[in-house]
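Q: Predict the assembly, please.
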Amino acid sequence: MNIQSAYNAWAETYDTVLNKTRDLEAAAIRQLLADVPFVEVIELGCGTGKNTEWLAATAAHVTAVDFSAEMLGKAQAKIARANVRFQQADITRAWDFASRPADLVTCSLTLEHIQDLGAVFRQAALALQPGGVFYIGELHPFKQYQGTKARFDTGTGVFELECFVHHVSDFMAAGQASGFQCVALREWFDENDRDTVPRILALLFHRGTVI
Ligand SMILES: C[S@@+](CC[C@H](N)C(=O)[O-])C[C@H]1O[C@@H](n2cnc3c(N)ncnc32)[C@H](O)[C@@H]1O
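A: Predicted assembly structure:
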């Protein structure tokens, strides 16, 4: 099963099964963007819309993008807002969905499925206005080093999705190469227990004026 098919299969249970990573990232994005103003948002890998409704409550407009028709279908069934446009697209291809300049691009729990971080940062830089913000929330690479991967129960067994490890330095290098400055790096822990391995890595990048 490729990544797209896997998310089509996972969509039915994605919202309902226990998933600490999903839930902790929801807390992370809300905290990290609490003081960030935004109007025009592109949400990459919106999935079933876990963060879409929250973004749309503040933004004038959200373009919510995912390549899984089933994940998008779940999001669309939940979110009926005139200021949200759902778009089925593969973010590793040209971002034809980025039709208006954004001041915020978000990407939650999606980059672990993308091999070429640099291509995403390059397109984010083009999609964002100068001074715009790129938020990234990912399963922490320390968890990946321990073997944790996106996985779900198919009904006949547990299926592990294809994942790529991106080290913290990889995010920094990809951001810098596309003219971004990292302005926040935060980690979230299960039960807020800082003696454990962090589960979520969240980063905020500012797009500079020169790319
Ligand atoms: C773990 S889910 C995260 C969904 C949501 N952002 C959340 O935090 O709950 C990853 C999502 O990324 C999407 N995705 C993965 N690779 C993608 C790609 N190349 N283009 C568009 N969407 C992609 C999947 O279909 C899936 O919905």
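The mean pLDDT is 96. The CA atoms of residues 41 and 62 lie 5 Å apart.
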